[in-house]
Amino acid sequence: MNASKHDIFLKKAKEVADAIKEETKNNGQIKIISHLDTDGIAAAGIIVSALYRAKADIHVRIIRQLEENIMAKLSEESNNTSLFIFTDLGSGQLEIISKYLDNEKSNAIILDHHPPMGKVNGVIQLNPHSFGINGSYDISGAGVSYFCAKALDTKNSDLSALAVIGAIGDRQNKGEQGSFTGLNTKIVEDAVNAKILEVKKDIRLFGRATRPIHISLEYSDPYIPDITGNRDACFKLLVELQIPLKKGDEWRTIADLTTDERTKLVSALITRSLQHGVPSVDAQSIIGNVYTLVKEKEGGILRDAREFAYCLNACGRMGRAGVGVAICMGDRGRAYKEAEEVLSNYRTRLSDYLTLISDNTERITDLENVQIFDGKGLVDDRIIGTVVSLARSSNTLSSEKVVLGIAFQEDENFIKISGRATEKLVSRGINVGKALSEAAEHIGGVEAGGHDIAAGARVPIDKEAQFIKFVRKSLDIQFKEHKPKE
Length: 486
Ligand SMILES: [Mn+2]
Description:
Elements: H1 2-25, E1 29-35, H2 38-53, E2 57-63, H3 68-76, E3 81-87, H4 94-100, E4 107-111, E5 123-126, H5 141-152, H6 160-169, H7 183-193, E6 197-203, H8 213-218, H9 231-240, E7 246-247, E8 250-251, H10 259-275, H11 280-284, E9 287-293, H12 305-317, H13 321-328, H14 334-359, E10 364-366, E11 370-374, H15 384-393, E12 402-408, E13 414-420, H16 423-428, H17 432-442, E14 447-450, E15 454-460, H18 464-481
Parallel strand pairs: 1-2, 1-3, 3-4, 4-5, 11-12
Antiparallel strand pairs: 6-9, 7-8, 10-11, 12-13, 13-15, 14-15
Helix pairs in contact: 1-5, 2-5, 2-6, 2-12, 2-13, 5-6, 6-7, 6-12, 12-13, 12-14, 13-14, 14-15, 17-18
The site of manganese (II) ion has 6 residues, from loops.
């Protein structure tokens, strides 16, 4: 059953690739428009690499959201464009695209995994949802782009690792022990066969290959009681377990641990979680699949797939998406250096913002099921979602509620509202994307989109109160309908 769904999807990918090939023969300009997050940048990197190899004339634009004014501008400045390719976005904005697309002059192809909204003619769309394939977990925007690139030329199977990174960026590795499901497993297979990716079981902590062990523990995800967010406790635990923190002058990383040390650390972490009432399955999830990009520099920022994903995200959020795309295209010279700088600036900015939230608690509105942080004039709209999620790990915001972060958009006539749930809330049935979309339907001029765990909306400033009222109402109903399981 599954196989046939996949086969039909792959057949469609071939059709779409043929349409792109046809276009490259006409020597027209191809404009690629992609989303600002990890998955979007990876998706753009894949398609740009594939088209660059096919010697096409390409332009790339990375955007936060495909809003009507952006689409209007794009079509205005695209006199020579014969083809638009939208990656990791577009399916939710079919009407906007068709409204501004001049079918006489140019075609449009959408490679997306967000739920399609509406129907239009004249737009070619490759989307897992159209084939009954789950777009939240089984394939990402980068994955959809990858299958299209591979259908264009089998040589492009070396771009598979980027599709794995995109899927990690969208947190799709939610199978047992951090494994992938559905079409994503095929992509992992391709990357392993191409000898660019290695999958093994290890401690799933961030910064496995780059950060001191106690820092990896401090930033642990999954959450470990009394460890996550508590640097002193992390230090103490390692001393107790007699695990040396340094080798000579250098900090050791998780990847440096001996087998014995690893076993000791894992069992201590699991024991601690269990003692604090964490369900066994969750406690065990500290061990799982880790994905290593074997051709990248050891100890570097791109060696671990999760860190590679983090790096692309940082590039997008810091307004340096171009650096991210260059990294995806294989630039390990200038772009790599720039990415290292972007990462370090990003970390500083995040910690500054966290201080800002705890210094401005009067901007937090605490409701029964929702917490709202008003970051207008304080926090950049590209980063507000990350900041409110992070504020949970330092307990400034609640992990039991949906959090909404608000920031001004560039022109201050609009605000960005980022909604974040948690895995626990999602497993209960809470869906932030649904709440924002429902509210948007009630109020004119709002554009909303996203997933169950994370979603965003662009709201005219004078509609803020009204919009939030609807979001709250929708979430209150969800919380009532999906009571926590005992
Ligand atoms: Mn995506």
